[in-house]
Amino acid sequence: xxxGDALISAQGLVKRYGDSLAVDDIHFEVRAxxxxxxxxxxxxxKSSTMRMLCGTSTPSGGSLRILGMNPxxxxxxxxxxxxxxxxxxxxxxxxxxxENLTTYARLFGMSRxxxxxxxxxxxxxxxxxxxxxxxxxxxxxxxxxxLAIARALVNEPDIVLLDEPxxxxxxxxxxxxxxRLRELKRNGATVVLTTHYMDEAEQLSDRIMIxxxxxxxxxxxxxxxxxxxxxxxxxxxxxxxxxxxxxLPALGSLAERVEVLGSRVLLYVKNAEETVAxxxxxxxxxxxxxxxxxxxEDVFLRLTGRSLVE
Length: 310
Hints:
Blueprint: E1 6-17, E2 20-31, E3 35-39, H1 46-54, E4 61-66, H2 75-79, E5 82-85, H3 97-106, H4 112-125, H5 141-152, E6 159-163, H6 171-186, E7 190-194, H7 198-204, E8 207-212, E9 215-220, H8 222-229, E10 233-238, H9 248-252, E11 257-261, E12 264-269, H10 272-281, E13 288-293, H11 296-304
Parallel strand pairs: 3-7, 3-8, 5-6, 6-7
Antiparallel strand pairs: 1-2, 1-4, 8-9, 10-12, 10-13, 11-12
EC number: 7.6.2.2
Pfam family, one: ABC_tran
Subcellular location: Cell membrane
């Protein structure tokens, strides 16, 4: 795909903060109408990349084109066509739910009537019509995130940038927000999403870019990432009394990859049921077993490591 098909095109993108290299020569494109997710551990460069896409941070090197424009020279024109949902809540506590939208709409030059009509339409979209007259502090966390998304859509943006939109929400609120994002996509929106939830990325994304230490380690559809970096299934063996490492050669012969995590051993295999049967026939006797499909989280941890990054 050429850059002419892309709403966002980054070529050799770099971001430095003093001597620190936060984004290191990355190349990617975001196509019209797709949900493109950016994943990575803390400090991987996700936030730095998102700030450059939002136009609030200037690239240190490389080329970045958004909607065919240069964000350094055409920042205001680009921002007028973006919808941004920041990670931290920026709703106005002094205003009602409806006023948060109408006031924002007026900043885009809408008449009072147009602003109200657009705001009521968006409250219906995010299922907050019955809370229109309420103040922000009366809303739940999920309601506030939905309102933030509604506000980002006021100007009918060409691109919506969502920075960890469901962090801290309960499962019901997350799934309702997923429904709204799927509807956005059905309506033709282009969405760039960062998230720490692997199931969220797998459910919503057309393509995923995984970054680590400022560089891209993998990019593709969820299916492509699973096929390339995972196996069809995973067997988890639990050894409550500790794992005897002398069993590693035997287990290694049963799996494409073996990972020892304290008292747990993960076997990445083609057929979990057959592998468990073979483990027991070989007398390896785990305390318990779990058979499951390989997930995007397995791929993510394989590519970025299991070390905790603070």
